[in-house]
Every structure is written in structure tokens, then in C-alpha cells.
Design brief:
Layout (H helix, E strand, L loop, with lengths): L1 E17 L2 E15 L2 E7 L9 H11 L10 H7 L5 H19 L3 H4 L10 E4 L4 H9 L6 E5 L7 H11 L3 E5 L6 H13 L2 E5 L9 H7 L4 E3 L9 H7 L2 E4 L1 H4 L2 H13 L3 E4 L6 H8 L7 E2 L3 H4 L9 E3 L2 E3 L17
Parallel strand pairs: 4-5, 5-6, 6-7, 7-8, 8-9, 9-10, 10-11
Antiparallel strand pairs: 1-2, 2-3, 12-13
This protein binds magnesium ion.
Length: 338
């Protein structure tokens, strides 16, 4: 198989603010795998939080190109040979191989995996801002059935943010604190969030915080962990500190590892959420292919960017539906002249 890869910038529709950073543009890596005249595509969405960048993903892809062999269906064998790091790059390879296998068999990836096409509705993420600003964005979120509010402002106004949104939004609300509360703040805020009808709280405490087990025991709302749950090897420890895990393909290393994480979580009695980074429809298509395995879905990355260069995933009644075309079913709209 022949691999080509390049870095691309995805400018956002508007700056996206979370507790630890503001993003105006996401740097991703697009890859193409060619085999017998057919082409599979994948996207790497590297996560700073885990010290991965577009450059480190590209370097990994260049390093492993010669180890890919010539059988795109040999997924287990291929990944067993690759160094266990650079999970966004691995996710891009995994996506491109699934795209290729889908095209070679004439099946959409979700069907080739034996899964249903439709999963739960996606949340629409509202970045951290002033309460009024967040409520204004909630009022414009007509295409969605649930909201995910970014909290962790460390200004004493997190509850006010949720209250402001609740006055204009009757539907589901989830919150994501991105590790920015202490145990005391969490124990003080979560009961009040419960009264506001919040569904669950994502990553209130820093990853690995020793108070995680106590918060799980005392929280009246389910706790889902994201930063705490990087790959399969983290899932068992998450059962001690959370009621559910947030799986992202860019963290897990792709579809196959994400499926293993989902089943491991189930075995441990944990809920399963599927998240994403700021990514194009190419990345989102891979996530949408396994969304039906999950309880909660947050796959809005391609809707946060100014223009999706890889259309094919359709937002229908709040659900990010993968295409019914073979493979991932997305096609690059404007081929880059480079
Ligand atoms: Mg999160």
C-alpha cells in the first residue's frame, strides 16, 4: 500500500474557547492509502493535551509507511507491528484502512462492521464565554437536540452560565469542565446542576485526581471522564472514578481500539460517550460509523469549522448520519492544488 500524507489547516467558524485554551484553527493531517487502484482516506486530529501535533503525526506516518504491507484487511496484524504511540496518526491509518476495505467490498464502514447506521443525536458544543453570550448561542442551536456547555471559567460564574442557557433551552444539557474544578467545587456545583436538569458532567476534576473515587460516590449526577480515559489501558481505572467514559478516535487510535474500549466499558458497567476534536467530515465520518455503539454522542467537530472540505456526513434531526456509500462515504470537495 502506498501512503501519502499532508498537513492541512481547518479554520473555525468562530474562536472556540475551553478552560485550557482558545482555538481559531485546527491543524490536521490528511492521508491517502492506495491499494490496487482504490484509495482510502483518513484524518489525524492530534491532541495537544497528549503532546501530539500535526508535525509529530506526520513524522510517525512517514516512519511507519514501509511497515504497512499489502493487505488492507489485515488490520490486527498491521497495528500490532506499529509503534504504540501517536494515536491521532494511528486513527488516520485505521480510518483510511476501513475506508479502503469498505470501498473494496462495496459496503459502508458502519455496515461492514455490522453496526446500525444511526446513533444517538449529537450534542452541539457551546464554548466557554459569558453567560449571556452562551445563552445567545443556545438560542441559535435549532438544528440540535442536546447542548454541551464548556465550563471551568474559574470566575465563580459556571452555574450562572448553565442557568442562563436553561432559560432559553428546554432540551438536554451536558457540561464539560475540562479538568478545571476541585472536589469541593464539584460537590458544591453538581447538585445545583442536577436541579437545572443537567444530564451528566464531563471531566470535572483533573485527570488522575485522587479525589475521583470520592466524587463518583457522592455525585448526584453521572460523571463521564475524557482526559482521564486516553486509550484502552485506562478504561478499568476509570470505573473507579466515573460512571462513563468519553471515547474519541483521535485518542484511542481509531475505530478498532474505540470498539474495544466501548465493550470494555460495558463489561465494567460504564456508560459510553463518543466525542471528537475540531475535525473535518473525514474524521467525523469515522466516528459516526460507530456511534450506534454509544449512549451519548458529541460529534460536531465538522460543524464548528468554517467550511467542511469533506462532505458526506448528514445532520438529520440532530443525528450525524454516516453516508450509505462504500467506505467512509466522504469525498473531498475542493481538491487542493498542492
Ligand atoms: Mg471533553
Amino acid at each position: 500500500m502506498k501512503l501519502s500524507a499532508r498537513i492541512e489547516a481547518l479554520p473555525l467558524e468562530e474562536p472556540f474557547v475551553i478552560a485550557r485554551e482558545t482555538t481559531t484553527e485546527a491543524e490536521v493531517v490528511w492521508i491517502e492509502l492506495e491499494h490496487n487502484g482504490e484509495r482510502g482516506y483518513g484524518e489525524a486530529d492530534p491532541i495537544d493535551r497528549y503532546d501530539e501535533t500535526a508535525e509529530s503525526a506526520l513524522a510517525y506516518l512517514e516512519e511507519v509507511e514501509s511497515s504497512l504491507g499489502n493487505d488492507p484487511f489485515a488490520l490486527e496484524e498491521i497495528f500490532a507491528l506499529l509503534p504504540d504511540r501517536e494515536y491521532a496518526a494511528r486513527a488516520a491509518l485505521d480510518a483510511a484502512l476501513h475506508d479502503l476495505c469498505g470501498k473494496l467490498t462495496g459496503l459502508p464502514v458502519w455496515r461492514y462492521l455490522g453496526l446500525r447506521r444511526a446513533g444517538p443525536p449529537t450534542s452541539w458544543t457551546i464554548g466557554l464565554g459569558d453567560p449571556d453570550e452562551m445563552a445567545g448561542k443556545a438560542e441559535r442551536a435549532n438544528d440540535f437536540r442536546s447542548l454541551k456547555l464548556k465550563l471551568g471559567g474559574r470566575d465563580g460564574r459556571d452555574l450562572e452560565r448553565v442557568e442562563a442557557v436553561r432559560t432559553v433551552w428546554p432540551g438536554l444539557i451536558r457540561v464539560d469542565v475540562n479538568e478545571y474544578w476541585t472536589l469541593d467545587e464539584a460537590l458544591d456545583s453538581i447538585p445545583q446542576l442536577g436541579e437545572l436538569g443537567v444530564d451528566y458532567v464531563e471531566q470535572p476534576l483533573p485527570a488522575g485526581d485522587p479525589a475521583g473515587a470520592e466524587l463518583k460516590r457522592r455525585s448526584p449526577l453521572p460523571i463521564f471522564v475524557d482526559e482521564d480515559c486516553h486509550t484502552l489501558r485506562d478504561v478499568a481505572a476509570c470505573a473507579e472514578r466515573a460512571h462513563g467514559i468519553n471515547i474519541k478516535l483521535a485518542k484511542s487510535g481509531g475505530i478498532r481500539e474505540a470498539i474495544r474500549m466501548a465493550h470494555t466499558a460495558r463489561a465494567l458497567g460504564l456508560g459510553v460517550m463518543l466525542g471528537c476534536m475540531v475535525e473535518s467530515g473525514l474524521g467525523i465520518a469515522a466516528g459516526a460509523s460507530i456511534a450506534s455503539l454509544c449512549d451519548h454522542v458529541d460529534l460536531d467537530g465538522n460543524l464548528l469549522i468554517a467550511a467542511d472540505p469533506w462532505p458526506g456526513v448528514e445532520l438529520v434531526d440532530g443525528v450525524q448520519l454516516p453516508s450509505s456509500s462504500p467506505g467512509l462515504g466522504v469525498r473531498q470537495e475542493v481538491p487542493s492544488p498542492r
